[in-house]
Design goal:
Strand order of the largest sheet: 1-2
Structural class: alpha+beta
Radius of gyration: 18 Å
Strand content: 5-15%
Shape: elongated
Order of helices and strands: EEEEHHH
Number of helices: 3
Distance between the termini: 37 Å
């Protein structure tokens, strides 16, 4: 039977706010971006409030953008300035063709 032996009664910790919530009141978060591939994975969790606050925009190209602007000894302020300058550029992050 579907759901038999389910451990939805367990408690998980929200990775954003640190609150302990019932698994049934949480959303799975997969840092690789593929929550549908479940084999050999342990998911992190977000409470519903924190999940709602997430940006659900595509992340394609984000990692390469961050690597491109990263520099040795760069202050947080300078890093954020460079990031904002790049994302304001229309060609900063190219979206894959659908």
């Amino acid at each position: 039977m579907l759901g038999a032996g389910s451990d939805d009664d367990r408690t998980v910790i929200c990775i954003a706010c640190g609150e302990s919530v019932p698994r049934s009141a949480a959303r799975e978060y997969d840092k690789t971006g593929n929550r549908w591939e479940r084999h050999d994975k342990e998911f992190e969790h977000l409470c519903k409030d924190c999940f709602r606050e997430l940006s659900h925009q595509p992340r394609a190209g984000l990692e390469s953008l961050l690597v491109d602007i990263e520099g040795d000894g760069l202050s947080e302020t300078e890093f954020l300035k460079r990031y904002l300058d790049r994302v304001d550029d229309d060609n900063a992050v190219e979206e894959p063709d659908s």
